[in-house]
Amino acid sequence: MNKESTVENVRVFVRVRPFNFLEGNSGLRQVVSVEENEAVLVTKPNTAKTYKKSYNFSKVFDISATQMDVYRTVAVPIVEKLFEGYNGTIFAYGQSGTGKTYTMIGDTLKDPQKGIIPNIFSHIFSEISVANNDMSYLVTVTYLEIYNEEVRDLLADDANKKLAIRERTDVGVYVKDLLGFTVDSMESVNDLLNRGNKNRAIGSTKLNALSSRSHAILTVAVESKNKSTNTAKFGKLNLVDLAGSERVSKSQATGERLREAGKINLSLSVLGNVISALVDQSTTHIPYRNSKLTRLLQDSLGGNSLTAMVAMVSASELDYDETINTLMYADRVKQVKNYLTVNVE
Ligand code: ADP
Description:
This protein is of the alpha+beta class.
């Protein structure tokens, strides 16, 4: 068996959330517009002179984009490679309330509102159903949360139990005691998603915080076995709903809460540092080990993974500063290169 290697930049997309009912009725101005599907234009509010800034990405989804449009463009190229033994990661990044969870999960039961995750599973199961008889597949799911630099299993009976990160030369970095569930139908997937999402909410309330402060990582592993050649391929896909990227001061945290907030945002700021270090040619030290998130997702940035990020923004003039922060962050991410290797027969 030979190895095939390629270099691929992280593909970065932007999605603009439509105004909600309140925003729509408040007379707020929209400061974000999309040009030619790949440039996003932001106009600074309340300035005498029009100040416009434009950023280019793989694709920008305007407010009329459907869940299926986003799924097809962002996820399908990665899911197809999963069966060939490639690893993948899709990040949802952005300020709270801009549509990260909507984009990743959406409504698991109503078709037009289904997000990337349920659509990925439908895709996997339909590929398996048309595969030839020589092939057999095993699809497993894990679902964890990182909150306040603590890792919890969202699918465990006791979702409050803290889990440890370990490393072994043969398997790499992993979470000790994280449960993996085999799935073979959308019913089994929806059961797991519902259980996990409920645990995310419960855990957060107990910790006196919003789920927007936690990072959720759902990982799907697909093992494809060819019985006639006796070979197997193994691909792993991480689907990451990141904590809200807004600055802490916005939540008016003080004292203990502010210190806690600093820790809560640690994974997100280390993610930014990892991206900067990867982009900055002059440094070779990448600080993956400085946070739980970057340790677990080390391969997704600068490693062996096909990676996409969807940066979510609000179009409202009130969110101008956060929108600019998100676009600047996303602009840097697109310079990150990944080094893909896969076994070929
Ligand atoms: P986040 O996960 O970034 O905090 P959510 O996904 O919870 O944000 O989205 C906030 C609200 O906006 C939810 O009520 C969600 O249904 C709605 N929403 C987000 N994006 C869209 C969209 N593209 N179309 C319609 N509603 C959306």
